[in-house]
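Q: Now give one record:
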Amino acid sequence: MANWAQVGYRIEGKQKDLQEIYELFGEFDKGERKPFDELSAKNWEGNIAWALGEDIKDYYLRGFIQSCEIAKGLLTIEAEEAWGTSDFRHILEKHYEDMKVYFIVEEEGNEVYATNDSEGKYFSCRFVGTHVSMVHMSGSISIRNRKHSSTSQNAWNLIPSPPSSWQHGRNAM
């Protein structure tokens, strides 16, 4: 069984492109458009990629959109994805010229926390810890807890922190 990660996307691009994604999600969500196949959930990210004409067979798409909002030139998507981020963002950036997809992912089971928003434009929180190792995944910055070892890497200013709602000691690294 997968560990479900909470993923937030903030998507910048041309208004017509953002609107197209927003409208596609709405059509699938309301049942106005049939999913990829009879086994696909209406909120599966792959439906949007498929509707855009992308060949989805070579992508890792194990995510489900929970909400999709558009305002002031920004598309905001909240999703649940298996184990971490899926390839959904890569498909969008490949399909649309000048689109930039920022994300943050939090998956507590394997203690994976990552973002590609190193400047804090949309996700300003920072992960903190005492024993961390940096893992570069598809252009993102990620950390994992290293319980019985330490590292000399000082990553404090590079890595997002968990939300303040987390118990302080439970997820401290």
The radius of gyration is 17 Å. Confidence is low (pLDDT under 50) at residues 128-173. Residues 62 and 81 are 6 Å apart (CA to CA). The helical segments are 15-29, 45-51, 88-95.
